[in-house]
Amino acid sequence: MRKAQFITIAIAVALACALTVSCSGGETPSQATGEGASAVSSGAQPSADLDMASSRTQSDYRDISTYTIRIQDVPYTGEAQKPQVEVYVEGLAELVEGKDFMVGEYTDNVEPGMATVVIVAMSPYYGEVAGHFNITTSPDRPYPGAADGWVQDGDSYQFMNAAGQPLVNQWCDVDGKVYFLGPDGRMATGWLDWMGGRYYLDESGVAVTGWEEIDDAWYYFDDAGAMATDRWVGDSYLTESGEMATDTWVGDSYVDEDGVWDRTKTKDDED
Hints:
left handed beta-beta-3-solenoid, four-stranded mixed β-sheet, three-stranded mixed β-sheet, signal, repeat, Cell_wall/Cho-bd_repeat, Putative cell wall binding protein
């Protein structure tokens, strides 16, 4: 019995010693806390870097070349054009001319085509940027050109304005005949869809007006060259596609095979 008690006491003493050795080799709570605080402190530096980056980003926001420039296109008049310039910062209000920016020199702002204006920032903004707008023509207000403005371009033609530049996406009147110069500056022929209207330019590039037969169908084009649709012109009706209706009823009116309203025929006759 005594021997067993002695063994039990010896085991307890051994365990106590083992626990003492283990504790003496470990970290104290204060040491662990100290190292953790150091890690947080060293992690504070990237936060300062982020603040500097944020400051640089805010500075970049003051660069006027990153802003949205809006300038409305204007019609050709033969005089210098200087439309209003609008400058917007994304997410902020419109900048004020004379306070936040100045409008500088305009170039190419008389003849049809793309014009340019220089926009210069004022403090606290900085930099400058080029704004662009188009001086446009239309079928009823074409560019008044002279016959010597034509320049052959392969199997087609271009037309040069008074500044010696080719007209692009513009209408031109030469000797009373109206032409359209396409996006490549070349004279257009055939069907043309432009600004919500439809036009037809013959083989010579001239915009047709009045009645015109195209591919065995008749169409009507007004004085500006726009195709008529969904309406009566005289005693003939132009359908949604622009083709003249033939041998059919348009409401209570009958148009014969020649496309002419037959006033003698009524729907009662059909019954």
